[in-house]
Design a protein that fits this description.
With 159 residues, the protein is an all-alpha fold. It contains 9 helices and no strands.
């Protein structure tokens, strides 16, 4: 991955959860565990986000739009095929979505949510390495290990 691709992924990643505008606040802001039905509705934010980008998002940059689309659609896919919405496995998952997936999980772990307090940076790091948040590309996990302090630094800056 070169710097240009990393830059495109960084900017396109901001659209990863655009589909959540279609999910009711009663689900997004629910302090407790979601029911199976509620979680099913929450998972639609990936396909709805991809539809929004495809149908509404206007840009002359075709590559950027494709990255936005792939990230929104596939950022919850897992390396072992146990993710959603399509159960993609391994390199079937667009690389940009794989990268954003790790960052998204890390952010969710180290941030307070209505349904949970933030985990420490050390605990979040270990949870990802231990596979508690799903399986990720082993090569990207090597990158994650090398970038551990950068993840922590960025998370602190955003909080």
């Amino acid at each position: 991955m070169d710097e240009d691709m990393a830059d495109i992924i960084s900017h396109a990643s901001t659209m990863h959860d655009v589909g959540k505008i279609t999910v009711p606040d009663s689900i997004l802001l629910k302090p407790g565990k979601l029911t199976q039905e509620e979680f099913g509705l929450m998972k639609t934010h990936t396909t709805k986000g991809a539809e929004i980008i495809k149908e509404i998002f206007v840009t002359d940059n075709r590559v950027f739009k494709e990255f936005c689309y792939n990230i929104a659609l596939s950022h919850h896919e897992k390396w072992d095929g146990k993710g959603y919405p399509h159960g993609l496995k391994g390199d079937e998952i667009p690389l940009a979505a794989q990268v954003v997936s790790i960052a998204d999980v890390y952010d969710a772990l180290v941030s307070d949510r209505v349904y949970k307090p933030a985990f420490s940076y050390d605990v979040a790091y270990q949870m990802i390495l231990d596979g508690e948040c799903g399986q990720f590309n082993p090569k990207l996990m090597d990158c994650f290990r090398m970038a551990r302090k950068e993840f922590e630094k960025k998370a602190k800056a955003l909080q």
